[in-house]
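Protein in question kept underneath.
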Amino acid sequence: MDSPWTLIELLLLPALVLLLGFVISFLFEAFRRRSNHNSNEAHPSFEDPKSLKQMPCPSILDPAEKYISLIIPAFNEEHRLPGALDETMNYLQQRAANDKSFSYEVVIVDDGSTDGTKLIASDFVRKYTIDNVRVIPLGRNHGKGEAIRKGMLHSRGELLLMLDADGATKVNDLEKLECQIRAVAEKELRLGAVNSDSSSRISDIPIAAFGSRAHLEEKALASRKWYRNFLMKGFHIVVLLTAGPGIRDTQCGFKMFTRAAARKLFTNVRLKRWCFDVELVYLCKHLSIPMIEISVNWSEIPGSKNQFVMNRDPLNFPYFPKAGVGNFEFLKFRVISFPYVSWSRSSHGYY
């Protein structure tokens, strides 16, 4: 009677040891990544082109000094960046000329480019002054998510807009996101949904606005190969299971956040490459940050480097926000969809 149980025990013991070892390894790796993320975070600096001195970057934890910050991640964009920056600066300068209270900055995050991207960006710093344009070099390539995170954490705006370096989305569409953020913020203040006083500003209310290409889906399905549609639908299912319903287009590179929202989101985001957008949606829900989805104008830009790259590291998973990060005010979660407007099809401007 003892021999069968002894055999089962001999089989179960190695399995339990392996399982325990896997769990310990998994927890150790997660802790190591979290520790490295927190302790090895170097405070970025940027170079003043005139004095050639390294200047410390501002922090998202500081009070806002500008009305809006535009964060542009750039990886080997020497051909497309100049046209996009010219259009962006023309818009910002014209708006500043018409509205004396409007102030801005453009933060270009050079994500380890090996071409002339940094030199081109530095030329714009010299042309428009370091107060309006800054370049944050990351040294080596980290990924679009990390480049945007760095830019967000070291920007000065009340509103923070991330946009691609290819100029696929027209920069003046930021007014659509800006107007809807204002509408939601004013509603929050009227309803008393947030703690506010007479000095409260829109930047103090956490809100996220997502540019969207969702209404082009039907046209895209008709023009794509069947296997691309299959991969797209599969990705949508993964997004639905991971982040839940609400935002139909998570991957559009045109997103705006209030300073309060950016402070909560980008101190907690962990994914460094293309899937970080999904983590942002998850974090908005986890932190009860209202989300708005708004269509934007979009045009085809040659030279897209977009590729479907599988995550090579299965442990590169989102780290859920830990207690005590930021002063979280839990609001009732809502996803607010607004009527779509006209726009044309484009390709994503990163990898």
